[in-house]
Amino acid sequence: MLFTPSKNIKKYLKRKGYKEVSNDIHEILMNCFIQNNTSKFKLILKFAEKNNIILNINEQNKKGDYPLLCCCSLNNIELAKLLINYANKKNIILKINEQNMNGKYPFLCCTFNNNIEFAKLLMNYANQKNIILKINEQNSNGKYPLLYSISKNNIEMIKIIMNYAKKYNIILNINEKDNEKKYPLFLSISKNNFEITKLLMDYAIKNNIILNLNESDKGIDSLLILSSFNNNIEISKLLMNYAEENNIILNINERGTLFQNAFSMSVLNENIELIKLIINYANRHHIILPINEFDEYGIYPFLFCTMKDNMVMANLLIDYANKNNIILKISEKGINGYYPLLWGTVKNNSKFVNLILDYAKSNNIILDINQQNEDGYYPILWSAIKDNIEIFKIIMKYANENSIILNLNQHNHQGDTSFSVSIYNNNIEMTKLIMDYANEHNITLNMNQPDSKGGNSLIWSVYNNNTELTKLVMDYSDKNNIILDINKKAEQGLYPILMNAFLTNNEITQLLINYAEAHNIILNIDEKNDKGDFPLLKCISNNNLEMIKLLINYAEKNNRILSINEQNNIEEYPILVSINENNLEMIQFLIDYANNKNIILKMNEKNKLGYYPLLLCALKNNIEMAKLIIDYSEKNNIILEVNDKEYRKGYYPIFISYTMNNNNELTKLFIKYANKNNIKLTANMNILYEISKIDNEFSELIKINNKL
Fold first, then answer.
1. Residue 220: helix, strand or coil by DSSP?
2. pTM of the full predicted structure?
3. DSSP assigned state of 655
4. Known SMART domains for this protein (predicted)?
5. Which end of the chain is more exposed for a tag (fewer CB within 10 A), N or C?
């Protein structure tokens, strides 16, 4: 009853929850497989059985799809088993090898879906029906089962295919390319899969197939390049052994998509064993390796050795070059303008630097040791950066032997020179070495050259708090008639005298003053940095009275008056900082200086925290400081602030002296000062009441204040 009318399949499926437009059971059946609907297929089977209908389960649509192909394509093994059971029951032989418009067929789909169980199901069915499965045919993209299986790294599937091919005397197309020019061996090596690669080679040997080992195409690298790229020495050995056994000469010098050859790839991977393997292969076959070739990134083998600080590889290259009368490239620039000698200094490797210079000498190569890269770096600059005196001496010796003058004043894009860096690194020995070389070769060092941080030789010698180095800089400058820019500002607005105030080195301060006087330079002793700090303020914060005296003496000699009321960015000023440091001597010194210069000191200004002199005296619990401040204020008709609160916790002088420090004498001093100056205390009434209970004197003092 094949092709029997549908007998209301549409109504039947509607009752089961499926809406169908067509009432054609075979159209519905095909859609069921396309939609991957197992449940609906079961309903159709029941309907067909009940109505004695034989289903056309081999029908193909316009695209060439048919039920079993749909099952395989959609990876639905349950649906396929139902289909096979139905076919067997009705003695129908299923279509199993037919290809659709895209070249798909069931077994190909199983390999694409990486489904071994499905593949075995098809093989078993084919065996039962005496059908030979298609296992070599390509789809419209040129893909075929073996290729898909390799792309999935599915060794079991590959073995199944090979065993099936052997059983039915099928020769697998193991050299066949897809539309992307990919073929089995290429894929297995791309996947870095040794086992699959060996399987393919063994299969080729057993079936007298010659593999295409030298195959390459646009965008497709040769097999040896791939194995070298993957750093896989075992696969490389397989390729070489197979080539030897089949009298194939590998194109080991062929360049790949990145302009790399197998040798340069092995160098990039720093695989010594693979490098030796390729060299030995080349020697056996009288092939000269292109050991000087650049890749697309501007890298060549010897340059890469220096980049990676790999002397073992470098020596291998030198040995190979010597044996084959090749002069190695050792001076050409690569990425960002770096070259081998420069990399040797970057890597801080004196042995490598010696190796490069010795090779140059042996091969009559004169290196440009002053050559800069794109950022302006050069070998002796890097030796200074790395603090490597040995490398500096090695390069200096090479320069002398080859009548090359080292460019000591050459700077990188950030303004760094080898000299400025040696001082920044606080390296006296290298600084002296550079100075001596400069003197011997009549080079005048640029002492005032600013670097990226705005510093120069003097600034960095002071920054390092190094008196000897500072003297060295000054002495060299004098001997070479150079006037140092001793007021030069570096980053953050720091300059020598201010920087030294931070460091509290009185000897350097005296050196700077002496230098300024000797060269008729007016020192900046009041200039502020980016934070508003100035020398006097930092000396006070460091309790360095001796340095302050040095500054004052200098100011006196030059008819200058120090700015003793200036504030920094957080509103701190000298007298306030002195109180904060609890330094009575410093306060008295400032008062004496102010009196001497007819300056009225700030006594009420607040800093960013709301601290002011009398409040800080209370915080420091220092009655002598408070008396000194009060005495100065009275003599200068200044009414001191006694009520204001600081900003964080709202503390005020009397609260601090009485409640926090339990200092009755200091509290009494504040109350007496307030009464004397008709200042109404705004302290908490409970606190004032408690104070009045201390004794009769306090009681009277509080009564007086209450009347104000």
1. strand
2. 0.82
3. I
4. ANK
5. N
